[in-house]
Structures are given as structure tokens and as C-alpha cells.
Amino acid sequence: GAVVSQHPSRVICKSGTSVKIECRSLDFQATTMFWYRQFPKQSLMLMATSNEGSKATYEQGVEKDKFLINHASLTLSTLTVTSAHPEDSSFYICSARKQEINYGYTFGSGTRLTVV
Amino acid sequence: GQQLNQSPQSMFIQEGEDVSMNCTSSSIFNTWLWYKQDPGEGPVLLIALYKAGELTSNGRLTAQFGITRKDSFLNISASIPSDVGIYFCAGQSGFGNEKLTFGTGTRLTIIP
User: Fold this and answer.
1) pLDDT, tens digit, 9 for 90 and up, residues A2-27
2) Residues of A with CB under 8 A from a CB of B
3) What end-to-end distance do the CA atoms of chain B give, in Å?
4) How many CB atoms lie within 10 A of CB B12?
5) CA distances for B63 relative to A32, A37, A59, B27, B33, angstroms
6) CB atoms within 10 A of CB A54
7) For the segment B41-97, what is each residue's pLDDT rounded down to a tens digit?
């Protein structure tokens, strides 16, 4: 199989603080992981592509200094929301793909971030 | 970013009915994926399609990769309560570790 674990599942933080979300591939190695953001009743919007050992690639309109991504190993990528504001409240989801070409992307269970 | 047009946006059906939803794009995709998302969870892969014209089944689910590579449909037969959720199509334009483009989603509700 291909299991992706995301932690924490829920987090509440105060405005101005930073929050780190972890994404781990449990039974496979992932050179590339993806971070999505989903607002209520909307689709998933790709924020950035996380590349192991190199800088992340951010989608247009996503602030790289605000959403820091670190992919330090083949099984772990982290997303840090810095200086969080209430408008950053959202559902953040990561995904990874086994390197075998015909294996679909596996998603984590998501992190509900609420900034108060 | 680009999104795939998915229809219908929502469906209200009775248990036991068949369901059909589709996804269209102005761009060609080499891979089409169908996912189901339950509230507060990440999407779960239902079916993956890799060849134009391919028809693939997974239990009561059947999906097809359009011959033009610009569309796909998903059918669910004899719906049951656990089918409730949001269904997303996703397209990938090339092979390898490339990003997915997601559809706008179809919310399925089963009326008691």
C-alpha cells in the first residue's frame, strides 16, 4: 500500500504565531510531496510542490515566506504557517506518490487550522 | 490555477439509485483520477485511468477516460449510504511527479 500520515489533525493558534504541519509517507519513499489548501465547500488548490533536498516550488499567488516548506528526508515534508492570521484558517492537505509510475497519489487526512 | 469543470455540482438521490457524474477540461490530460472525500478527511483514490478510452471498474464504481483525453465520467451503481461524500476528478498532464489539477467536486447526498 501507500500510506500518508499527517499531523496534527486539528490545531488552534493565536494570530501572529507559527504552526508546523507534518506529512509523512509511512511505507514508501517520496521524493516529491504536494501541499494543498481547501476552503469550505471548495476544491483542493495546490499551494506548493515539495522536493526532497531542494527548494519547494510554489504556485502563483502563494507567499513562500509565509508558507515555509521543508522536505528534509524521503519520508517527511513539513509546512510551517508563519505569523498566522485568521484568513489562514483552512484545511491543509498533503499528498505523496510512490515512485512506481502507475500508482496514484495518496493523500494525508488533512489538518484543520483555526487562527483566533 | 486551472480547474476541471465537474458536473453536477450536487446530487440528491435515494438509496439504490445509480449515479453518474463527469469531468471536462479544455486541456488534454494523460492520467485521470477519481477521489472521494469524506468530511474532515483527505481524498481517497477510487479509480485511476491511464489510457484514452479506458474503462475501469472498482466494485460498484465504473470510470472511463474519454477518447479525446479531455473528459472522464464516474458511475456508481446501486448507491448505498456510505457513498455520501464529495467526489473529485483530478487530471495529470504528464508522467512522473507532476501536480494534479482538481475538479470542482460533486457533492452526493442520499435522501432517506
Assistant:
1) 899 999 999 999 999 999 999 999 98
2) 4, 6, 31-32, 34, 41-46, 49, 59-60, 91, 93, 95, 97, 101-102, 104-110, 112
3) 37
4) 11
5) 27, 26, 30, 19, 9
6) 9
7) 999 999 999 899 999 999 999 999 999 999 999 999 999 999 999 999 999 887 655
